[in-house]
Amino acid sequence: MAAPQTRICVFTSTVLGNSPAHTAAAHALAQCFHNNSIQLIYGGGTTGLMGELAKEMVRLSGQDSVQGIMPTIIMPKERPEGAPGANAPQASVSPQEQAPKKRTGVFERIRAALLRGRESGLSTPAAAVVEGGEQSMRPAAQKALLAEGIYGKTIVVPDMYTRKRTMIEKVVSGGPGSGFIALTGGFGTLDELVEMVAMGNLGAHKLGVCMYNVEGFWDHIVGWMENGIETGFVREEMRGKFMRKESAEGCVEWLREFWGTTWR
Description:
Helices cover 46% and strands 12% of the residues. It has 264 residues and is an alpha/beta fold. Strands 4-3-2-1-5-6-7 form a seven-stranded parallel β-sheet, sandwiched between helices. Strand 2, helix 2 (48-61) and strand 3 (66-71) form a beta-alpha-beta unit. Helix 1 (20-35) packs parallel to helix 2. The model is unreliable at 83-107 and 113-142 (pLDDT under 50).
């Protein structure tokens, strides 16, 4: 029986940054995945480095090589062609959807999303939550799925919590060399990176986590880890678990080497 396809989840940004080296790195990662028959799992965005990575993967390997996971709450920002006001023809909207809604601040929206995720419970299969999210999508949100020939397949989920959980489950079901890579990004990328390391350290998964260190972007995170080791807050053996590599090939090779080992 053939082994499952390798799946690597890439965390990265919805903007391009100031240096073209980051876009070049996203394209190099897509080329490396293509050369090694790896499926990309990512956040589902179509802008910035997310969009560049997904587009290049589809161009090289076809739409089945990409699986995006997009929460409805951030679709207007990360998948703007699926948001109201996009250039594509709009589906009909019911009078209930047209009715004005009470405005809420960003913290209230984030809190509501987190609460929805907690209420779903860890014991609920992610697929069931995902299907519920797809069935309850507004017509405008459904349009985000129409660009499969450009950005690959997309699953729409109800919240950020479900997005992370679905990403993990997709990668865990992958073949040898599956794992996580953090390309350049901001707070969201850092949050995802640190959570995958923390979960591995706690035994929640056995997959490798690697930083694609473009122009030294992740050097300060490694410095923080070294300080944590020196001050007794991070285990010394984490030096061999949480890696940075300077090339796409180096990241993929590290995940292969980590496969089959444990965090503790």
